[in-house]
Amino acid sequence: DAGITQSPRHKVTETGTPVTLRCHQTENHRYMYWYRQDPGHGLRLIHYSYGVKDTDKGEVSDGYSVSRSKTEDFLLTLESATSSQTSVYFCAISESREYADNQPQHFGDGTRLSIL
Amino acid sequence: QKEVEQNSGPLSVPEGAIASLNCTYSDRVSQSFFWYRQYSGKSPELIMSIYSNGDKEDGRFTAQLNKASQYVSLLIRDSQPSDSATYLCAVPNQAGTALIFGKGTTLSVSS
Prior knowledge:
The structure holds 2 protein chains of 2 kinds.
Chain A: E1 4-7, E2 10-13, E3 19-25, E4 31-38, E5 42-51, E6 54-57, E7 64-70, E8 73-78, E9 87-94, E10 106-107, E11 111-115
Parallel strand pairs in A: 2-11
Antiparallel strand pairs in A: 1-3, 3-8, 4-5, 4-9, 5-6, 7-8, 9-10, 9-11
Chain B: E1 4-5, E2 11-14, E3 19-25, E4 33-38, E5 45-50, E6 54-58, E7 61-66, E8 71-76, E9 85-92, E10 99-101, E11 105-110
Parallel strand pairs in B: 2-11
Antiparallel strand pairs in B: 1-3, 3-8, 4-5, 4-9, 6-7, 7-8, 9-10, 9-11
């Protein structure tokens, strides 16, 4: 299995509080991604990173920020959590953006976040 | 914005049958296609990738691609109860920076 660790695995918090999710990889892959998965919507890209301190927005980036100060860590922050951000969050990594046959995108185990 | 469409299912097949999962995509320039399997409560796992028209086989799995029809399918032969999962189709987005996923088809294999 690809060396991807997401923390925490589960979190319950209140509306208006800041929340940070962490993705840690041991594969030294350049590309890292944050997705959210919701019933009826599937997996949607929040933000991605193509190197240390290089990040860009995805499809559903409003209300989220990211940081990548080291190759191995990609943080997702909800500045002021809202109930609409209750979801399962997945981190993914890939060695290449070209998605060559031997360089697929691998996923972490996910974080289940509930905002009350 | 590219779109990836899949029937949500559930698709129910008996053990030992062939399960056929279908995916259509909106962008004619897509060059690579991926099938992920996701068990309930787990993360997506890549099971097949395909880049050229035709069939690609890997064990009990066969991916079929028809770029002219913008259609990619996944066949699972000799289906097993352990194949019961949601199958996600994915293509790279227009910028090539990430994957766009379909909403998935839920497969149920009964013993």
